[in-house]
Structure formats: C-alpha cells, structure tokens
Design goal:
By secondary structure, the chain is of the alpha/beta class. It has a domain of 66 residues. The chain has six helices and ten strands, in the order βββαβββααααβαβββ. The strands form two sheets. Strands 6-7-8-3-10-9 form a six-stranded mixed β-sheet, with helices on both faces. The protein is globular and about 50 Å long. The two termini are 18 Å apart. The C terminus is likely disordered. The structure holds adenosine-5'-triphosphate and magnesium ion (MG).
C-alpha cells in the first residue's frame, strides 16, 4: 500500500474544550491511483491533508508513505493548497523553482526542471509573468508545477479549484486527468464539491461522504 493511514485521530484543544476533528480514519491508496474524497465544509479535509503533508502531527494513529512513517514535510509529497499561495513578487518560474532553491539545487538544474514542469502544465509562455498577470486557473496550474518540480511520489490537493468558475473548473478537471495519465503520479484530491467528483466510480469512505476513484 502506497499511502496508508491507520486509526488516525486528531483533536484540537480549544478554549471551549477538546474538539475531535478526525476520528479513527483509515485510508489506503495504491501507487498510481487518483483518489478524490468529498467532505462538507469544516469536516476536517484540510486537517487530514496537513497530517499527510507532515505540516501537523496526529493526536494518535499514523500516516505511512511507501511504508515510511510521516514525521514532517518532505519532497516525496507535493501540496497544492486551497487558496492561491504563489509569492506575488516572484515570476511564475521563480515560484516553480522555489522549493528546489530551498533544497540547494544548483540554478541550471532548477531552471531545467522548472521549465519542464511549466511546459507540462502549459505555462511556458508565462514563465516570466508575475502571478497577478495570471488567471485563477493559470495560478493553480503554476501551483501544480511548483508542487511537481520536486518530483513527489504523491500530489496532495486541497480543494485546488474551489475559487474557479465552473468552466475553468471543468477545464482543470480534464487537465488533471490528462496530467495523471501522462505522469502516472499518485493523486489524493479533496473537495467539498460533489460535482467535482466526476468521471467516477463511487465507493464508501467512512471519513468523507464519498470516495471517488478515477478510471485511468
Ligand atoms: N489549528 C486549529 N485549532 C483549532 N481548531 C482547528 C484548527 N484547525 C482546524 N480546526 C477546526 O477543525 C475543523 C475542521 O477544519 P478544516 O479546516 O480541516 O475543515 P475543512 O473540511 O478543510 O473545511 P473547508 O471546506 O471549509 O476548507 C473546524 O471545525 C476548524 O475550526
Ligand atoms: Mg479546508
């Protein structure tokens, strides 16, 4: 099993007392799967992704990627966030290669790698543009390139298209399916929008309302 979440619980200690957000979550995702989970607003979707990304620690239970327990963030997991998170003062290419720069990858190499992933998401002509010059869909494609540039084993997506209009959203769904087919990457995408969970085969998932598995 590629992503294995076992008996995961997450409580937040608040002034009003302990808030149990994730209760006994068990999820298995095979390598190369594209899984979409749907949950209502406030059901703990972002909280779950943060545990997988290693940005937060579970109260109990564990998350394993490729048999290895997650104890913090790592380049094996790429994350696309719910809200636009590109740095506004950096060009699209600088944004895309920022993670590699932090990892100490030499400039020539990170230029090559970011150029490749910008071409994968169709933004080669906008590599020198600033995020403010991009449409919402293009901003999220740039964020996807930034997540892919470290060549993660799994792409975690937290309602990445929530802010887009319906036509752009549909275009991004086709784009994601195409990207997944071309790269073979494992994708775990989370949304509150059942409409978003299209192309699907639905199975029950105790945590969320629906578990949707895309057919390659
Ligand atoms: N750091 C925190 N401290 C206390 N409570 C928190 C914290 N983070 C999240 N919560 C609470 O946990 C619950 C789930 O939050 P979360 O952001 O995971 O929901 P979500 O499913 O992503 O919602 P949305 O669809 O609105 O993005 C909410 O009730 C929220 O108030
Ligand atoms: Mg959220």
């Amino acid at each position: 099993m590629f992503l294995k979440i076992t008996n995961l619980n997450k409580n937040f200690e608040t002034k009003a007392g302990s808030l149990a957000v994730l209760k006994d979550i068990n999820i298995d995702i095979e390598q190369g799967e594209f899984i979409c989970a749907v949950g209502a607003s406030g059901s703990g979707k972002s909280t779950l992704l943060r545990q997988i990304a290693g940005l937060d620690r579970p109260t109990s239970g564990d998350v394993k990627i490729d048999g290895k327990r997650v104890t913090g963030p790592g380049p094996d997991r790429g994350m696309v966030f719910q809200h636009y998170t590109l740095y506004p003062w950096m060009t699209v290419q600088e944004n895309a290669e920022f993670g590699l720069k932090m990892q100490g990858v030499p400039k020539k190499e990170r230029r090559e790698q970011s150029s490749y992933y910008l071409s994968v998401v169709g933004l080669t002509d906008f590599s020198k543009a600033l995020p403010s010059e991009l449409s919402g869909g293009m901003k999220q494609r740039a964020a996807i390139a930034r997540a892919l540039v470290s060549e993660p084993k799994i792409l975690l997506m937290d309602e990445p298209f929530g802010a887009l209009d319906i036509h752009t959203k549909e275009a991004m769904h086709s784009f994601m399916l195409d990207l997944w087919k071309r790269t073979g990457i494992t994708i775990f995408m989370i949304t509150h929008d059942v409409e978003e969970a299209v192309f699907c085969q639905i199975a029950s998932m105790p945590w969320a309302h629906v578990r949707v598995q895309f057919a390659r």
